[in-house]
Request: fold
Amino acid sequence: MSPRFPRTKKADSGAAPPSTKLAYAGRARRTVAMTGAASFLGKNLVGLLEEDDRVSRIVAIDVYPPTTAKAKTRMYEVDLTQATAEERVSEILAAERVDCLVHLAFLASPTHARAWAHELESVGTMRLLNAVRQSSVRKVVVWSQTLLYGAHPTNPNFRSEPRQTRPSSPTRSRQKPKRTISPSGPPA
Reply:
């Protein structure tokens, strides 16, 4: 049986799993935007979303096109390290009427180009989140890894933001944000 359709407690009749077209009939199909679409995770996710009937369009935002892009994917060349990225991404999100943004534009491994890495990962993420605030995106998904908060056997299965972190690598740890930005704007 396919992992997308897990076995239920009812007896398996041997019938094929229902098509996602039937299961989601009448529901609006989503437009998903993705930064880092040409990365390892990005191109694999693009491939999965291309086959998902719940997704009508994929908006790839990256400096290179994903190799798994097909008919659903629209590619926009945007470099998040550039000062114009915030305005450009905001225009794209509004024009494409994006429902969900998946942010995968992060480095896969450490680099000696620390200034550029900071510009991409920290400043680029800030520009992206500012663009999201200016649009009508309802959901933002940000990729992370255990290296940032520390993979320890005593950690709970689900972590909340105020919990103390214990990074696995001090060179890759991030500072905790000073404040949370809400969709309505900065705190008064």
Notes: The helical segments are 20-23, 40-51, 85-96, 114-133, 146-149. Residues 104 and 143 are 6 Å apart (CA to CA).
